[in-house]
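User: hey, got a sec? need ATP-dependent RNA helicase CshA folded
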Amino acid sequence: MTFQELNLIPPILKALAEEKYTQPTPIQEQAIPPALAGRDLFGAAQTGTGKTAAFSLPIIQRLSEQQAGGGGGKRAIRALILTPTRELAIQIFDNIRAYGKYVNLRSAVIVGGVSQRGQEQDLQRGTDILIATPGRLIDLMNQGFADLRQVQILVLDEADRMLDMGFIHDMKRIIAKLPAQRQTLFFSATMPPEIQSLVDSLLKEPVKIEITPVSTTAERIEQSVYFVDKPNKLQLLIDLLQQDKAIESAIVFTRTKHGADRVARGLTKAKITAQAIHGDKSQNSRQAALTNFKNGATRVLVATDIAARGIDVEELSHVINYNLPNIPETYVHRIGRTGRAGLSGVAISFCEYEEIPYLKDIEKLTKQKIPVVEDHPYPMVNTEPAPKAPSGGGRGGNAGGGRGGNGGGRSQGGQGRGGGGAGGRDGKAGPGQGRGGQAGGGQGGTGGTGGPQRGGQGRGQSGGNADGGYGRGGAGGNAGGGSRGPQRRPINAGR
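Assistant: Yep! Here you go:
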């Protein structure tokens, strides 16, 4: 099939030819005709399937065939595209400008992390197509700059990621301001219950399209896993990058923002060009890192899952999972960034003992065993789970590590504390993993006093969401009746 056969108008076909688009992808073939007809659409598609053009081209065509709304020369927002991240929003904006260069439409992008003054001016001048992240759009709506009363087409792109990032309530607030009569195009790579509920409530008799089910991994991607203890992961990564010159460009995925910074620093110290990208970086810093990576100035981009949304690199040779994700579908998303456009790709995963359950979940989802690389310098030594002490420490025994209570906190910034178990005399403290509420951290257990053994090591743990709180490490006990045991630093469980 060709783009001409999809009944696209000549100005769009001309722009696509200049972009070297020759054949539509499967999702474009299936999505463009019903979207042009005004149907609601649900697309289950991963990144890299061509879904941006699948919804952008029908929007451009439908709006260009109508008279611009708003009256008085000012354009009204007629299409709203919501995305989870700044990078993805900017990428979509760039694509729409390229596809629509020969039609009389105006588009604007609204994202956080940059001054909103220019965005206010764009909205005051008027725009036909608005691409936005939910948080900044809510701000501009509250200030009276964004009027959504004439929106005809709503696109929710990567809705599952918006859910992961805590945008579900913002999404609902925005949708409540839209006309009831509209077209909705909904894209999500996974279908958790909350997303299914949203689909059921928003879409009217939608056309359903599923491209490359999320449980599948491309055959052209060579996968492998290294079992390695956590302290040795960085050195293993350095060795691989120094010894394997076939790793021309790699995205390294970490679980946390602090982890991304730590890995990038370690690689840079080893004379490997690397930059980190995550939500704490400024927009300019993130854009510079992406530009350096795409033009080859940086060999390794270290990223969290959320920050990686919107990274569009056609010829990515390697994806490296420094930390395995606890959601198996995320693994499929990650490695799907290599092996695109018919090219081969390599996906390497590091697995410490505590991550073995994640690996099993991934293999269950993908219905395949990932080959294990056994011959490497840092084989896993820790093959035992962390000891679980009984719940009450007596004299001379091991004190149980009480699990911290759920600290009540608001979704942003509360500091709930749950205390870990204290060590008994002559014993050692249990780990005491205090778990905060949505934002609060927990307090680690206190080590036991006296006795010849070193006191236990308290361990704090952060609260869960993207704005996560902090945990406070418990004090170690007194070793041999005198010196103070070590304090564990808090474990940041936020993104």
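Quick note: Confidence is low (pLDDT under 50) at residues 388-495. Let me know if you need anything else on ATP-dependent RNA helicase CshA.
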